[in-house]
Amino acid sequence: MRGWWEFITILGKRRPPDPEDLGLERELLMRMYRLLVLTRALDRYLLRLQRMGKVALYAESLGEEAAMVGSALALRPEDVVFPSYRELGVYLTRGVPISEILDRQLNTVDDPLKGHEFAVFGDSRFNIVPAPTPVATQIPVAVGYALAFKIRGERRLAVTYFGDGATSKGDFHEGINFASVYKPPIVFICLNNQYAISTHVSRQTGAATIAQKAIAYGLSGYRVDGNDAIAMYLVSRSVFEEVREGGDPVLIEAVTYRLGAHTTSDDPKRYRSEEEVRYWMERDPIERMRSYLISKNVMGEEEDKALWAEVEALVSAEVEKALAKPGLDPMVIFEDVYAEPTPQLREQMEEFRQQLRMERVMRG
Ligand SMILES: Cc1ncc(C[n+]2csc(CCOP(=O)(O)OP(=O)(O)O)c2C)c(N)n1
């Protein structure tokens, strides 16, 4: 199956098939739907916390939840994820507790990254590597990691997530080219949300699709309806299985849309029309899955309302708990950098300690 690409949708079909015909059990569909709702609820809170001045900067997931949750649900715990800065839905699907994400975002005393890095999250317990700030640099690193799995004979995958803008970077091409030669167990997932800040994807590449770029590297690409959680899950599950069994690396392009701003420092009204945003709001991935589940009698209206209420209560309780925690001690910035601090670092630590003492005195 090398050297081709294909577009796949399930919920986008005029008559989407029944869950039984897709071989999907109710329990899995409800888990998928709850994760979509959870991602949206926590995403909203994080945006509000940023507006309250509690979070420094936040990159919303709004509109892209299906591409994140659908793909991550097909991963195994031992697989390693190399995300970009936007994949909240991936973290939640991998089972990262809401409290840890909040600790990270609010830099509480329990922040797993101790204030280091710009990354939204990262923790070896969940096999999630912290996302780098420079766009696309996670891609070649993920390829190297996957190569180690191959050399050691481990049946694990490396999966890297990145945006459409990242595909213009050398890191993407170097990474996928290297993967096409050494064939490590890696899957490239491009969340094509159609914008790299204000740059539309049409200015990112002259190619009709991102998926077709796989062909030039002798690999297969899938162009998936990224607002269709079920399509994302089914494609990812089959691709992951194949790659885990020694198949060639694969590129998955999830066609989706960033309904919110690039980050909290961006104003998208300056570069795109309200009509365009409205068009995509009507294709909201959560609403699509909700109406599918209701039309197929997998879930009732009341059950849906109860689920939203339960998730909202859960997230708001976690936010309250996290806000009540003390903040990080600024001195932890020196931890986990060197095994033994250098003499210069010791000097800086002393200076910083004195400065903090002085600030405390001045504050009374
Ligand atoms: C090497 C590099 N250049 C520029 C930036 C500034 N920057 C941050 S995010 C971004 C856009 C990335 O867009 P895309 O890859 O499509 O991902 P998205 O944010 O849409 O999810 C840019 C240009 C950066 N972080 N790194």
Using brief descriptors, characterize the structure shown.
alpha/beta; two-stranded antiparallel ribbon; 8 strands; Rossmann fold; 10% strand; 364 residues; single chain; 13 helices; 6-stranded parallel beta sheet; binds thiamine diphosphate
CATH superfamily of the largest domain: Thiamin diphosphate (ThDP)-binding fold, Pyr/PP domains
- As a percent range, the share of strand residues is 5-15%
SSE series: EHHHEHHHEHEEEHEHEHHHH
Q: Give the biggest beta sheet.
A: 6 strands, parallel
Count of folded domains: 2
Mean pLDDT: 95
Adjacency order of strands in the biggest sheet: 1-7-8-4-3-2
Mind telling me which CATH architecture of the largest domain this is?
3-Layer(aba) Sandwich
Helix-and-strand structural type: alpha/beta
Task: Determine the fraction of residues in helical runs and give it as a percent range.
Answer: 40-55%
Cofactors and ligands present? thiamine diphosphate
Termini Cα gap: 70 Å
Low-pLDDT runs: none
- Provide the CATH top-level class of the largest domain: Alpha Beta
CATH fold annotation of the largest domain: Rossmann fold
**Overall number of strands:** 8
Explain what you see.
There is one protein chain. This protein starts with a strand and ends with a helix. The longest helix is centred in the N-terminal third of the chain and has 26 residues, at 26-51. The protein has a six-stranded parallel sheet with strand order 1-7-8-4-3-2, with helices on both faces. A two-stranded antiparallel ribbon has the order 5-6. It is globular and about 70 Å long. It has helices at residues 19-22, 26-51, 65-72, 88-93, 98-106, 138-152, 170-182, 213-216, 229-244, 274-281, 285-295, 301-323, 343-363; strands spanning 5-8, 80-82, 158-163, 186-192, 195-196, 199-200, 220-225, 250-255. It folds into two domains: 5-328, Thiamin diphosphate (ThDP)-binding fold, Pyr/PP domains (Rossmann fold), CATH 3.40.50.970; 330-364. Helices cover 45% and strands 10% of the residues. It has 364 residues and is of the alpha/beta class. Helix 9 (229-244) links the parallel strand 7 (220-225) and strand 8 (250-255). The chain has 13 helices and eight strands. Helix 2 packs across helix 3 and helix 2 (26-51) runs antiparallel to helix 11. The chain binds thiamine diphosphate.
